[in-house]
Write a structure and sequence with these properties.
Mean pLDDT: 82
Helix content: over 70%
Distance between the termini: 12 Å
Number of helices: 4
Largest sheet: none
Radius of gyration: 13 Å
Order of helices and strands: HHHH
Shape: globular
Length: 76
Amino acid sequence: MRKLIASIGVVAILEGLTGMLNQVIAGDPVIPLRFFDHFNRIVVERTAFLDGYEVQANAALMMAGALVSLGARLKG
């Protein structure tokens, strides 16, 4: 179970990273990273209260993913 939670954390880190790259370079990320860009395209771009805070939202997702992954690996 811990490996599953740690994997979810890693995916959240990649989602945040590719979303941040997408916002910073103002274009599509490179092909291998595009597979992890769903959070930015589905949640951040369609949520009204995040307008103007896209980079911060993706950074928060990266931090949350890191905490979840690290917590799952340190627990036990």
